[in-house]
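Fold it.
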Amino acid sequence: MADAKTLIIAIDGPSGAGKGTVARAVATTLGLRHVDTGAMFRAVSWKAVHDQLPLDDDAAVARIASQAAIDVEGGIVRIDGHDVTRAIRTPEVDAAASAVAKLPTVRSLLVARQRAYGAGGVVMEGRDIGTVVFPDADVKIYLDASAEERARRRTADAGHSGGASGAAEVARAMAERDKADSTRAVAPLTLAPDAVYVDTTTLSINDVVERVMALVAQAARR
């Protein structure tokens, strides 16, 4: 029987599916580290924009991914000492992160960091955790929701400073991000064959967390 505190729990899915809220709740319940890999890409993208680097220059952006001090724990995101928790949740950084996520060297460097975070157990959320970062994760979950519901959640999310953007504009931007993430050549957003698919459209956060915790309990008994 495994110790739940040593499990690697991978939670994937598109924006607005509930990954962050669910991953944080599960990590808190289990006393595990929670890692938001999307925040890592966003932080690197923010610095690339800040440093006025071309977002298609893999070598230049990779230097940030390799050398920058990145901290995404405890709900605060920092890169090289700068608190960018709010700054990375903007439409500009959304677009930048989608571009940076296509860069193979950047992805390779950040995946190595993410795997290091997994030592000793972790709840990790992202778009390729169960397929690329931890293909042998103890628990794999893919959260999804209807496009309309995901846009509604994102519009209502105070953590994303989208300004006066309406739901239609948010939905359009999310559809573009979904397409870019699912069609990129490197580590596309996709459902792992052995992941449990959960449609969260009509479920409460508590319902989703309960389902994940049941899967964790099953994995711990194996």
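Residues 167-183 form the longest helix (17 residues).
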